[in-house]
Design brief:
Length: 165
């Protein structure tokens, strides 16, 4: 399999990316449970069909510099990510550093897990991406589709915790 390198992205990119998607969902589980799921061996792959496989490439305990590889459904692409922020139990952010398709220049995500004031969790998720130059126009046209596709993962998380708590 061929891998394509992406340019580095950081926290500033999550506010300045050409394509930004933000989601806020309430999950029917305590923040500790949501964090445990996010850092489990299955992680996002357990939530729904968007991520079909996830492998942590770094040993535990996880933190800044941790790497993982994801397979996005249905076998669309593989992405390798490196975490640049890790606030244990509360927040993490990462940037993709390699992908098996040459579509993106930069890609990053930020996950925040907070109490909703009761027994649930307020889950905030930001996705930032920048396509490679000639793909900018097609990506602009696809923005509504991308927003819906990424939003499905947040909704899948909501369903996952509604069933399991």
């Amino acid at each position: 399999m061929r891998w394509y390198s992406l340019e580095p992205a950081d926290a500033d990119f999550l506010t300045s990316a050409p394509h930004l998607f933000r989601y806020r969902k309430r999950f029917a589980a305590r923040p500790e449970r949501v964090w445990e799921s996010l850092t489990s061996d299955a992680s996002l792959a357990a939530w729904g069909p968007l991520v079909t496989d996830l492998k942590w490439l770094s040993p535990r305990p996880f933190g800044i510099g941790t790497e993982r590889e994801l397979v996005l459904a249905p076998g669309l692409s593989r992405v390798r990510e490196r975490f640049f922020r890790w606030d244990e139990g509360r927040r993490y952010s990462f940037a993709a550093y390699q992908a098996n398709s040459p579509l993106l220049r930069r890609f990053a995500e930020d996950y925040v897990v907070e109490t909703d004031g009761g027994d649930g969790t307020l889950f905030s998720w930001t996705v930032g991406l920048e396509p490679k130059g000639p793909l900018s126009l097609p990506f602009r046209a696809l923005n509504p589709v991308l927003k819906t596709a990424f939003g499905r993962m947040a909704t899948d998380g909501q369903r996952y915790f509604a069933k399991r708590g």
